[in-house]
Known about the structure:
- This protein is of the alpha/beta class.
- The protein has a single domain (6-195), classed as 3-Layer(aba) Sandwich (Rossmann fold), CATH 3.40.50.
- Helix content is 35%, strand content 26%.
- It has six helices and eight strands, in the order H-H-E-H-E-H-E-E-H-E-E-H-E-E.
- It has helices spanning 6-17, 29-42, 60-67, 82-92, 123-136, 160-169, and strands at 50-54, 74-79, 95-98, 109-115, 137-147, 157-158, 172-179, 185-192.
- Strands 1, 2, 3, 4, 5, 6, 7 and 8 form an eight-stranded mixed β-sheet that branches.
Amino acid sequence: MPKVDHRRFYLNAYENYGVTPKGVCWNSEKNQYTRFAQVLAILKDIQNCSVVDVGCGFGDLYLYMQKYKRIPKRYIGIDNIEEFVEIAKERTKQEILCKDVLYDKLPKADYYICNGALNTLTKFESFLFIKRAMQHSKKGFVFNFLEGKKESDVYNYIAYNELEEIVDQFGGKIFYRVKGYIKNDMTVGICARSLE
C-alpha cells in the first residue's frame, strides 16, 4: 500500500462532509456505532478505567460512551489533526491532545483504544502504532482494523496471522477477537503476557 497523506485525506473528508461520521471517513453512523459497540463490549470495567482514544477525530466515541452511560474514569483523546482536536475539545469538554502516536510522548492509561485509525497507515506504521499503544497501556489495547490480505491504494489490510506474529514479537497476547459484524473488519484486544 502506498503512503497516504493523512492530513489531506481526512481534511478532504471534513471539507466535503463536515462534522459527521463521513467527515472522518466512516461509511455511515451505523458502521461507526457498530465498531464502537465492539470495542465497548470488550471493556466491561470501563467506568473504573482511564482510556486514551487514539485517532479520536471529532470525539464521537466519547459522545457514544456518554449516550450509553459507559464513561471512563478518565478520558483522553488524541488526534494529529489540529482542526479535529479543537472540534473534539468543544464537543466533549474532555482532554484532547494533538499528537502523532508514532513519534510523540504519550500519556499512560489503563486502556488504549483505536477505531479505524490504523486503516490508512502502512503496515510498518500500524505495527509501530500497536507497539507504542501496548507500551503505554496498563491493561491493554483494544482496536479494530481491516482484516485480510486484500491490496488497496488507500487502505491497509492486516492478515490475522501477521497481527498474531507482531503481537507475539512485542511480548503481547491477543485476549479477545471478533469479526463478522462488518465485512473485512475485526476488533481485537491485546495485552502484555504478564497481564493474562
